[in-house]
Amino acid sequence: MASKFFLIAQREYLTRVRKKAFIVLTLAVPLLLAGFGVFIAKIASSDNDTTDVVEVRDDSGLNVASHLVSTPQLRFEPAVGTLAEAKKGFQKAKHDGLLVLPAGLDVEKPAGVQFFGKGNISLKKQLTVETALNKAFSDLKMQKSGLSQEQLDRLRSKVDLQAISLDETGKEADSNALATSGTAYALALAIYLFIFIYGVQIMRGVGEEKSSRIMEVMLSSVKPFDLMMGKIVGIAAVGLTQFLLWGVLSFGVSSVLMPLLTGGDKPKTEVAAKPAPNAPEAASAAADEPQSAGAAFDKGMDKSAKNMNPVGRTSIFATLGNLPLGTILFGFIVYFLGGYLLYGALFGAVGAAVDDQTDTQQFMFPITMPLILSYIVGVSVILRNPDGPVAFWMSMIPFTSPIAMVIRLPFGVPMWQLALSITLLILGFIGTVWVAARIYRVGILMYGKKVTYRELGKWMFYKG
Amino acid sequence: MKPILEAIDVRKAYANHVALDGVSLEIPEGSIFGLLGPNGAGKTSLIRIITQITGADEGEIRFRGERLNPSHIAQIGYLPEERGLYKKMKVGEQLLYLARLRGLSRADATARIKQWLARFDIKEWAGKNVEDLSKGMQQKVQFIATVLHDPKLIILDEPFSGFDPINANLIKDEILELRNQGATIIFSTHRMESVEEMCDNIALINRSRKVLDGPIEVIRNQFKTNTYEVEGRGKLILVHPDFEVVEQKERENGHFYARVQLHDGVRPNDLLRYLIGAVEVEAFREKIPSINEIFIRRVRETMPETLTETANALL
C-alpha cells in the first residue's frame, strides 16, 4: 500500500504546486517581503542618517566650540557674521539650529547659553545639544585643572556592556538577548504560520473531496488512513517547497534590491564627515588651541565614529554563533514536523466531519485555540522567562510544545526536558492521528448531517 | 457456473439500525446480476462491504473462493451512486491517477485510457478539466474510470441515473460488451424496471434482508399467475368456470382490453378458442409479471406489516 500512499501524496503535491495561485503567491511574497524589508531599512537608515547641523557662535572666549564633539547625528559648525546675521544665516543655510555662547560665560556656572531653532525644538534635539555642551564644559574644566587633551582622551572611557550567559557547567557564552529572542521568535512564527496555513489547506482539501463526492471512488481503492496521511504529507511537501522558495527568493531579491536602494547613502556620510570648508570665526576663536576648529570637529567625528562602530553587530553574530545551533535545528525540525502532523490530522478530521465549509467554525475553535494560545503566551511570557513554570508546562503539552519549545531552544533547554517533550509530542501525535483517522473514516462518507461532538465521540468506537 | 462472489450470512449494523441482517448471495461469473430493492434496503451497505470501503460485522465475502482482501481491489470496479471526480484535475490525469490506484502501471494505464477515450470518441477531452465538462460527459469519464483497469467484477450503483437516454443506451451496450468479454456485472438499483431486461440473475433486498434471489427467468415463471392479456373488438362477456376476468377496459370504437386469469389446468388455447367465438381478437399474450410486481407480491407474502412502507419507497 506504500505505493498508493505515495501516489496520493504525489497528486496532492502536484495539483497544488501547479496551481496559478501557488506560483503567484510563491513569487509575490518574497517580492513583498523584500520590498517591505527594504522600505523599513530605508526609513530606519534615513532616520539615522539625517545629520542635524547646529551652528555655533562662541563669544565666551573660553573656546567651548572646540570641545563640542560632533556625532553622525549632530554636527557643529561655526556660525558666520554677527549675531543677527547668524540668526538669519543658519536658517538660510537650512541648518537646524544656532547655539550662542555669550561673552563672559563662567565655566563654573555657565548660564545664558541660548539655542535658536526653527519652529519648535524637539526634546531629542535639545537633549543631544545639552549632552554635547555638558561634555564640552567638563572637558574645559578638566583642562583648566591642568590635564592635556591626550590625558583627557585617556581618562574618558566608553563602556559597552558585554552580557555573558553562564550555564550550569560554568561555560561562558556571549549572550545577546536580541539575537536569542529574535531566533526564538522567528522559529515560533515559522511553525505557527506553517501549521495554520497548511493545516487549513488539509481541511479544505478533505472538504473538497467530500463535496465533489469522489470519496467513495477513492475508498474502494485505498484505505482511509492512506488517503488522509497521503494528503497530509503531500501538503506538507507543498508547504516546504513554498517556504524554501520563499527563503531562496527573498534572499535573492533582497540581495539584489538592497545595494540598489541603500547604496546611494554611503557617499553622503562621507561628505558629512568632511570638515566644514570655511570656519574662520571658529578658527580665530580657537586661538589658544593648537588645532584648527575644523580639525577638532573632524577629530570628534572620527572618535565618535570609532565608538559607534559595529560593536552591537559583532556581538549579535557572536551570539548567533554561540547559540546551540545543532540542538535548535534538530528541535526545529522535530517540532515543525511533529506539530504539523499533530494539527494536520486534526484539521483533516474537521474537514471530514462537516459537510459545509461554514460549519467548520465550531470544530476549528478547539483546535486553533491551543495553537494561538501557545503563540501568544510564547512570544509574551516564555520569551521573557524561558525557564519559568509556564514555559516548562507549555513545552511539555504536545498541543503547545511545538511553539513553546522552539521559543525556549535558543535559550538552552536541559536535555531531559527536551527528550521528555519530544516523547510526549510523538505520543500526542500518534494519539491525534488515531483519533483523526477514526473521525475521518466515518465522516468522509457521512452526508447531509450536522455533526455534534457527541456524535464524533461515537465515531471513535465504530467498527471498521 | 462457479460464483465469482459469494456473500455468506453477512451482517452489518450501524449505531441506530441494522443495515444487513444475515444476507447470503451467490453471483455467477460472467452474468449480469441485479441487486434490487427500495432505497434504504441495504444495497449500498452490501456494496460498500464488497468494495472493502467498510467491513461486515459478521459473515464473510468470498471472491473466487478466497476471503475478500485488499489484493482483490484491482479486480473490482465500482461506480458509486454518488458520482464524483476531482473537479480541478484534467480528464487524462484523473483517469491515470485512478487507474494507478487500482494497481495499473503507468504505461498500461496510458494505453488503456487512449483506447477508451477513442471508444467513446472523446479523445479531445483528455486535456480538459473535469469541471469544464457537462454532466453527461463527466458520467462517461466516470464510467471509463470504473472499467479502465479491466476489472473482473464491475459494480454499478444506480447505473443509469443522470444519463440522458442516448448515453444510457451507449453505456448499456458497453456493459453488455464487457459481459461478453467475461466480466461480471452487479447492478444495484431501486428502479427495477431500468435493468430487468438486462439481468440474468437478481436478488431482492428489503429491510436489510434478502427476500428472493435466483435466475430471473426462473423467478418470473415462479411468479406467473397464468394471466393473459387480450385486446380486440366486440363485446366481451366472459362467463366461464375456467376463466376469470381480472380487469376489463372499454376503448373507443368498440375496442376493449382485458386481463384474464386461467384456472389451474386450463391452457391458453382453451381461452383463445373461446374468445375467437365471441370477439374479434387483435392481440393475445401472456402477462409476465414485472420484477416490481414480483417484489411487492413477495414482500406481501413474507412481511405484510412492512408493505405500505416499502411500496411507498418504491413509488
How would you sum up this structure in a few lines?
The complex is a heterodimer of chains A (464) and B (315). By secondary structure, chain A is mainly α. Chain A has 18 helices and 6 strands.
Features:
heterodimer; A: 464 residues; mainly alpha; 4-stranded mixed sheet; two-stranded antiparallel sheet; 18 helices; 6 strands; B: 315 residues; alpha/beta; 4-stranded antiparallel sheet; globular
Please describe the topology of this protein:
The complex is a heterodimer of chains A (464) and B (315).
Chain A: H1 2-17, H2 20-49, E1 52-58, E2 74-78, H3 83-92, E3 97-101, E4 114-117, H4 123-144, H5 149-155, E5 164-166, E6 172-174, H6 177-211, H7 215-219, H8 224-262, H9 265-273, H10 280-285, H11 293-308, H12 311-322, H13 325-353, H14 361-384, H15 389-394, H16 401-408, H17 415-443, H18 453-459
Parallel strand pairs in A: 1-2, 1-3
Antiparallel strand pairs in A: 3-4, 5-6
Chain B: E1 3-13, E2 18-28, E3 32-36, H1 43-50, E4 58-63, E5 66-67, E6 76-79, H2 91-101, H3 106-119, H4 135-147, E7 153-157, H5 165-180, E8 184-189, E9 201-206, E10 209-215, H6 216-223, E11 227-233, E12 243-250, E13 255-262, H7 268-278, E14 280-286, H8 291-302, H9 307-314
Helix pairs in contact in B: 2-3
